Amino acid sequence: MAPPRKRRWHWLLLVVPFAWCVAAIPLVNRIGYVFGSIPFLLVWMTAGVLVGSGAIGLVYAIDRRRGDLDRV
Description:
The protein is mainly alpha-helical. It has helices at 15-23, 25-28, 40-66; strands spanning 34-35, 38-39. The chain has one domain (9-66). Helices cover 56% and strands 6% of the residues. A two-stranded antiparallel sheet has the order 1-2. Strand 1 (34-35) and strand 2 form a beta hairpin. The radius of gyration is 17 Å and the shape is elongated. The mean pLDDT is 81. Keywords: Membrane, Transmembrane, Transmembrane helix. It comes from Amycolatopsis dendrobii. It holds the Pfam family DUF3311. InterPro entries: DUF3311.
């Protein structure tokens, strides 16, 4: 008999980088603020890379703690 499957709700965290970088661009593109001499859109996308890396790292840490990486 196969062991019961664990719920992987934490994988929904991987939607956050998509929403940050793709879905919010039309809203953020309207902001004309300049941070130093860097346009706000570039600052937003750079922050998106950090948020995306954090989300992927968090999912990895949760999978590792639950032992899901041992099955691969």
